[in-house]
């Protein structure tokens, strides 16, 4: 039976790079985003390059609890994935004392609550099976406070805490939990910034790190991955 990976927010950037890496290794893919056209294009691209795998997609807004749970149910009808990557996220720059209150609520629901609900949807099956690997895509913004980070930075600090707690809970059950904290990675989030592409990390480098962490023996786990641009943070 083929292995599978669930990656939220898989149509762009780090999420897409992870999907490409695992699909090339023969993993079936489950993913979601808010844009149906992007999902259809991704499905066609990945299945054309990897004709022996299946790519299952669903349009869902994971800032909404109902849609997050609906996506989990959609996946569970077909499989319990071997790997879960909580990648969905948004970045709205602003300061905590000035940003609209709605920014905090939207960011926390998208970046943190989606990971909470989706992880909970599969942990019982992972525990029963005594295997599985959960990755949370955080950020160096969850390690270092900076001005104008606002709600995004808070959500990533919270994501690191969530992942650390989940790691302790899943440890006795053979389930691995890894926090991935990339620095500035060249994705759509940085479009329009007046900096050369070479100043950023590659999304494929993050995908390679996730792949390497996944492939350790059952006796070892990478708890945290911190990756920064060679020339430092942006």
TrEMBL record:
Domain of life: Bacteria
Gene3D superfamilies per the UniProt record, alphabetical: NAD(P)-binding Rossmann-like Domain (3.40.50.720)
A Pfam family hit: adh_short
Keywords for this protein: Oxidoreductase
Keyword Oxidoreductase: yes
Alphabetical list of CDD domains matching this protein: SDR_c (cd05233)
Family of the protein in this entry: Belongs to the short-chain dehydrogenases/reductases (SDR) family.
Protein name, UniProt field: SDR family oxidoreductase
Organism: Cyclobacterium plantarum
